[in-house]
Amino acid sequence: MKLSPWDTIEVKDYSKLFDEFGIQPMFPVFSESYLFRRGIVFGHRDFDKFLEARESGQRVSVLTGIMPSGPMHLGHKMVVDQCVLYQDKGVQTRVLVADVEAMATRGIPEEQARDLAVNEYLLNWVALGLDLKKSDVYAQSNRSVPYYRLAALLSGRVTNAEMTAIYGDLSPAKTVSSLLQSSDILHPQLKEYDGPHNVLVPVGVDQDPHLRLTRGFADKLGLIKPSSTYHRFMSGLDGGKMSSSRPGSYIALNDSTKEALRKVDNALTGGRDTAAEQRKKGGQPERCMVYELLTYHFMPEDKELARIHADCKSGKMLCGECKKILKDRLGAFMDDLRKKREKARPKVKKFTEEMFTC
Ligand code: TRP
Ligand code: SF4
User: Fold this and answer.
1) Residue 286 Cα, ligand 1 centroid: separation in angstroms?
2) Rounded (5°) CA angle 9-15-18
3) Sequence ranges of the chain with CATH classification 1.10.240.10
4) Closest ligand 1 atom to 181 CA
5) pLDDT tens for residues 284-333?
6) pTM of the model
7) What is the Å distance from ligand 2's center to 250 Cα?
């Protein structure tokens, strides 16, 4: 198995990541969040150290990044929900726009990267609950001299052999992006920022190579190794991988409500060919996108989700009824999100004008 931040990867068996990469299985924590309760956040590195530091009153912070390279979809929402959870717990939260990475590795023009950052990502992040006043939100392209100096210095602390062992073959653009990402994660510990402290990085597991690189740097520089948590990927609505090249495979947050509901109509379910067969054999929620959407986003109530699971398995409930439950919730969510985006637009616009000054 390979973990690569630049290829769309599909993880068939998450438990393999524990033995192969030394990711730790997640332990029970934050029971108020279904992402943690349900094991959607399934693994970590040194998350216990982050919690211990926080409990003993030491400074901690959270940092994650947004790559402005395509539409923001529901697969991106889990990390927002986690950041909002930390923000609400009073943890200093940083969110960066990886516009330099998008320009360098994806060939996205600067103007377009900025437009995506604002209109696809930050507006939705704020609509989903990120408080710009409580968090430090920045663009890689506009950070600071100490941040860039650190990225450049890191280049002297790693060999080609080490880079290849972590990433495989690397283009110069990918090398620069990796060093910049390490600086993203480590620069909050510089004296110009908050000094040495535990920084937690909640990400999809495809980003783990960057964390391995960064942990090595932290050791060499005498900084505290970052902690990280990893969440599962959502599958594509049509059963394949979720991919920005197939709009039918995801629900974009900027989709119209009608479009989103239509995608649910076309989504792959674990239903049987005929109603009679389903009544007899029951459905297969474990391979059903309707069930996955409820689990990841739209049914925080465990009891109600368990009931749907049972009624699906027993054949008591058919897919039409189940889709209706999802569509009611998804429709309300999309309408509400659109209103919140419009409300947030003026302040996000003003904020991002200051964020992209040079
Ligand atoms: N590479 C990340 C992505 O593709 C974006 C990113 C850049 C990031 N710097 C980061 C994520 C620091 C977490 C921490 O999504
Ligand atoms: Fe999926 Fe619901 Fe159909 Fe079961 S009843 S297969 S959970 S849509």
Assistant:
1) 30
2) 90
3) 247-340
4) 9
5) 999 999 999 999 999 999 999 999 999 999 999 999 999 999 999 999 99
6) 0.96
7) 18
d(CA 227, CA 224): 9
- 128 Cα–ligand 1 center, Å: 19
User: Looking at the DSSP assignment, which residues form a beta bridge with residue 202?
Assistant: 229
What is the 176 CA–ligand 2 centroid distance (Å)? 45
Residue 95, both tokens = 């969110």
The ligand that comes nearest to the alpha carbon of residue 307 is: 2
Beta-carbon contacts of residue 354 (< 8 Å; ≥ 6 apart): none
What is the domain class of 247-340 according to CATH? mainly alpha
Block residue for tokens 């000054």: 357
Q: Which fold has domain 21-233?
A: Rossmann fold (3.40.50)
64 touches ligand 1 (CB under 6 Å):
yes
Number of the ligand closest to the Cα of 187: 1
* Gap between the Cα atoms of 149 and 157, Å rounded: 13
Residue 280 CB coordination number (10 Å): 10
Tens digit of each residue's pLDDT (9 = 90 or more) over 12-56? 889 889 988 999 999 999 999 999 999 999 999 999 999 999 999
